[in-house]
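Bit of a strange request maybe. I'm writing a small parser for structure token strings and I need a real example to test against, not something I typed by hand. Could someone generate the tokens for this chain?
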Amino acid sequence: MNLSTIKITGNLNKLMTGTLLTLSTLFLAACSTKETPTPESASLMLVNTSPTPATYNAYINNGLANQGAIPFGGALSYLRLNTGENSVKFTTASSSESLITKKVTLENNKAYSLFLIGKEDKLDYLVINDIITKMPTDKASIRFINLSPDAGALDLVIKDGAILVGDKTYQASSDFIEVEAKKQTLQIKEKGTGLVISELADADLKAGNIYTILSIGMVTPTGLEQKAITKLISYK
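Reply from user aminoacidic:
Good idea to test on real output. This should exercise your parser:
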């Protein structure tokens, strides 16, 4: 069982209650003036969930996006990009030769998470629009994404308690939901069998904060494949 946490610097925890605002919306609103029109832009976060020991460099529109190679479970904080098509390329840490290059279309005032999935010659992207419709106040807001390639449907549960998010197949994401703001152990279980794949022991979920919980890695790894773990991304 493993607990791994990433803190992402961003404004997702400043979303206004009852609106469909994301990171870029608030940034642009703060910077715009009557005299100077604000150019359209969006925000993109990158996360490496490819279940191998490889580390990667990421290039956006031919510019290197990371300072150090991105390991399994590693993430890059939100980058402000132009709207429309943006080219995203991943290479090994020691080469500039493309392993995968794809166009990602971004809309104005929206924030997205791009997950590198698959492995070897079957790398791919999963892009999710990061939308929260209600700002948490006295509770925490979480979502769950199943990115364990060989897992069946998974449930996110409170240890010895209720199911928070149920029946998420590979690449499926839940909406953000509110949970009690306190330390609690969260488990990811196989739907049906109840087998615990991994857990977040004493996860400190704070009131007003927003989190993404990922199941990444292989349930049954072979060779050098990464074993399934739970990754907690905290938006600060």
